[in-house]
Amino acid sequence: MLKVEIYARVRRAVYVEGMSCREAARAFNLHRETVRKMLAFSAPPGYRQSEPRRRPKLGPFVGVIDAILEQDESAPRKQRHTAKRIFDRLRAEHGYSGGQTAVKDYVHRHRLRHREMFVPLVHPPGDAQADFGQAEVIIGGAQQTAHFFVVDLPHSDAGFVKAYPAETTEAFCDGHNAAFAFFGGVPKSILYDNTTLAVASILGDGRRQRTEAFSKLVSHYLFADRFGRPAKGNDKGNVEGLVGFTRRNFFVPIPRFESFDALNAHLEACCRERLSTIVRGETETIGARLERDRAALLPLPPAPFDACETWGTRVSSTSMVRYRTNDYSVPVRYGYRDVLIRGYVDEVVISCEAEEIARHRRSYEREDFIFDPLHYLPLLERKIGALDQAAPLVGWELPEEFAALRRRLEARLGKPGKREYVQVLRLLETFTMHDVRAAIADALALGAIGFDAVKHLVLCRIDRRPPKLNLDVYPHLPSAHAAITSAASYMDLLAGAAR
């Protein structure tokens, strides 16, 4: 292709210096048609195709290719046809005799024609978008996947992020509580994808049937919920972009924290720091534009939403209830009763009728058993033979004073000593570990080895009064005998003093 400099020289020679096309062609050693093209264009126009290139061999198979590409729209993205695969199928199944390049060019043009186009949008203050993302974190020395909830206000580009061990209903609801508290109000509307945490089903007319938990959340905060098209993440492109920004900036390098609480404190600090930045195309900081968003937000209700998942079940014969593959203990007196489980992000609360009967730290393992040893002590007091094999007591780390007391009790009383030891443990149902431990230490120092003595000493510590123990009931103590003093001995003593 001739360079622009030659174009300029030829055009100047003809238009300025008055040279004819014939003379210019001879002077520059060019064809006259080339000179006429240079006079028509100020720069090389490039190759111009006057009509589409004919592909006689491909023509009869265009309909087949279109059908394959149309079927691909409903196939998984990673299992769609490549141009090479379409070419192979045309040759093997339809007798195509043309080349692969013609198929590749047609597939490329077809996909360009059918790529989705987008309309630039403006976002009024007070609207929001929400989504979950994933990133690797190290919590307590163990690497795991964190599921972080993101809420974005597109008008100001302000965002909030909070991480959870799992993408659950209670995390979804708790994330809304935390985000609304961070922004200082409730968005007028929130756009979601069709997550099963919010959408139970999509009806035939496109309406969404909400889950029960999400319906309660909407009723509590009174925001309008909106949903994007299925499998169309670009409908909520702002929050999708914030999810990627968060992963690249807040989770690189992989965060190391002792707990999710510490991680979330770090993430909130990152969100606050981001308020001072100015994004591309804007003249104000995110924080300055956030004020317009806040002015349009709905007010917060008096109390946050009770962010939990409720589950009704029955206590098993081993005094356990199952919630999300894990078993949690309840006091044995509630065996076989119907109970209500409330699963929060950090804990599991179990109630029977209107009474809370158990509260456990939430486990995110699978098929885990979470015991409270105190729940089983009344049963062990009756079935004392199971004391040494009781699973709820495995791993229960008690101070050394408890083991010393048990040894002394069993040495003194045998099997009944085990029962008294369990009775001492049951004092932990009412009193603190500190008070019971101190009472056992006092009992060991006094040699008052028994449940009644320990209980008396605990009560004395709480009431701040001196103990009044009848040590005669503890025969293992050394006996003290007081002899009767005779008058003769007394007189001898006085005589000795006179001398």
Please provide a written account of the structure.
By secondary structure, the chain is an alpha/beta fold. Helices cover 40% and strands 17% of the residues. The chain has 17 helices and 15 strands. Strand 10 and strand 11 (326-329) form a beta hairpin. Helix 13 packs across helix 15 (433-446) and helix 15 (433-446) crosses helix 16. The longest helix is centred in the middle third of the chain and has 15 residues, at 169-183. It is elongated and about 165 Å long.
SSE layout and pairing:
Blueprint: H1 4-15, H2 21-28, H3 32-40, H4 62-72, H5 83-94, H6 100-113, E1 127-139, E2 142-153, E3 158-164, H7 169-183, E4 189-192, E5 199-202, E6 208-210, H8 212-221, E7 224-227, H9 237-249, E8 256-257, H10 260-274, H11 286-296, E9 309-314, E10 320-323, E11 326-329, E12 338-343, E13 347-352, E14 355-361, E15 369-370, H12 377-382, H13 400-413, H14 415-426, H15 433-446, H16 451-463, H17 487-498
Parallel strand pairs: 1-4, 1-8, 4-7, 11-15
Antiparallel strand pairs: 1-2, 2-3, 5-6, 9-12, 10-11, 12-13, 13-14
Helix pairs in contact: 2-3, 5-6, 13-14, 13-15, 15-16
